[in-house]
Write a structure and sequence with these properties.
The chain has 395 residues and is an alpha/beta fold. The protein is 37% helix and 18% strand. It is flat. It folds into three domains: 1-37 and 78-125 and 217-319, 3-Layer(aba) Sandwich (Rossmann fold); 149-214, Helicase, Ruva Protein, domain 3 (Orthogonal Bundle), CATH 1.10.8.470; 322-394, Ubiquitin-like (UB roll). The longest helix is centred in the middle third of the chain and has 21 residues, at 127-147.
């Protein structure tokens, strides 16, 4: 699972990345602070099943706080994109190319309106333009990839009677696009799949727009939600883009909270609407003031900083994944005594047999049955897994 952070320069992408990962990313208030992509690990948050068994888990990857399990996902932070990026402006082609394998895009938007489309300081910038131009750049990026080969591609597909969806999956193989996404895009476009040699540029653009939205869906991170103009701008973009998932967020607030928690100055669970100061003696007046501001202007207003909400929304609502635990029906620990060491993120609709193969090919090849660790019931290979299932594979 790879999530790609996109947005114009100075929107707060690197701050969001650092808040998610606590990785050493360069953060500064000027364009193109990031040139080479940063790759790190963020975490989605689910209620761990260990509490239902009255035990404490020992994760092999990720961590668990108060029975909240944090499961790792990869995050890629690329340099800011500007209008004309698909044509190479601001090294846009290079940065877009970095995003080829992303499963979804996290689009960071500067809700304060204090930076223009190129990330330069300004006042009262129309935030709607930042969403529109980036959506357009991503669509034109897809179009450019297809247009390079379209004439020969369409003729070959028509003459050799190759199914269009198969040919397109092959053509877009470097973009991690699935066959079902191509089929759905063809169907929704209303275009004649049997006469692709007659598609014009407008037809092709209509098709790739649908394909991009299906294969690399976006969520809008309305960053800097604590700015005085934020509430007004949030309302404006929600009205303009009713079909997009828009999450108010303060990446800077989350970064402060996570770093303070790491230093054991506060107790804080990512995604919560509160924190507790546990070492006030080590906090100076400026730090105490900052924490009070975060509490009053972010957490009490929005219910969280938004960072954890973004990751969970992307995985569970946008990409429709579920979390499943390999768990013995009578023994929750592995051979080393680690309790519930693993948690896998799998697409909704995954069967018990598919899950067995996801863990290890030998488990899939030698599958006999599965057992639901919570109910102790035996289930077959076609059992559709549910979120937070504990499943033992019997071979």
């Amino acid at each position: 699972m790879l999530l790609g952070l996109v947005g114009k320069p100075s929107a707060g992408k690197s701050t969001f990345f650092k808040a998610c990962t606590l990785a050493n990313a360069a953060v500064a208030a000027y364009p193109f602070t990031t040139i080479k992509p940063n790759r790190g690990i963020g975490y989605v948050k689910i209620k761990c099943i260990d509490e239902e068994f009255n035990v404490q888990c020992n994760p092999r990857e990720g961590y668990c706080l108060n029975h909240w399990r944090f499961v790792p996902v990869q995050i890629l932070d690329v340099a800011g994109l500007v209008p004309g990026a698909h044509q190479g402006k601001g090294l846009g082609n290079q940065f877009l190319d970095d995003l080829r394998q992303a499963d979804a895009f996290l689009h960071v938007v500067d809700l304060s309106g204090t930076s223009d489309s190129e990330g330069k300081p300004t006042e009262n910038h129309d935030v709607r333009k930042d969403i529109s131009f980036l959506e357009e750049e991503l669509d034109l990026w897809f179009l450019g990839i297809m247009e390079k080969v379209w004439r020969s591609f369409s003729r070959k597909t028509s003459s050799e009677k190759v199914p269009l969806h198969e040919a397109i999956v092959k053509q877009f193989s470097g973009l991690n696009i699935k066959e079902k996404e191509v089929k759905e895009a063809i169907l929704k476009s209303g275009l004649n799949a049997g006469k692709v040699d007659r598609w014009n540029r407008e037809d092709l653009l209509r098709f790739v727009k649908l394909l991009r939205k299906l294969s690399k869906p976006s969520i809008i991170i309305a960053n800097k939600c604590d700015h005085p103009k934020a509430e007004e701008n949030l309302k404006i973009i929600k009205e303009r883009f009713p079909d997009l998932i828009i999450i108010p967020c303060s990446a800077e607030a989350e970064l402060v909270l996570r770093e303070a928690s790491k230093e054991k100055l506060i107790e804080y669970i990512p995604g919560e609407d509160h924190f507790e100061i546990i070492n006030e003696a080590k906090l100076n007046e400026k730090q105490l003031k900052a924490l009070k501001f975060i509490d009053e202007k972010v957490l009490k207003v929005y219910g969280s900083s938004g960072v954890q909400n973004v990751l969970n929304k992307v995985l569970f609502d946008l990409l429709h994944y579920i979390a499943v635990f390999p768990a013995g029906a009578h023994k929750l620990a592995d051979s080393k005594g680690n309790i519930l060491p693993d948690c896998f993120l799998v697409p909704n609709g995954t069967t018990a047999l598919e899950f067995a193969y996801r863990i290890h090919s030998d488990l899939g090849n030698n599958f006999v049955k599965a057992i639901n660790a919570k109910t102790k019931q035996v289930v077959g290979k076609d059992y559709i897994l549910k979120n937070r299932d504990g499943i033992e594979i019997v071979t």
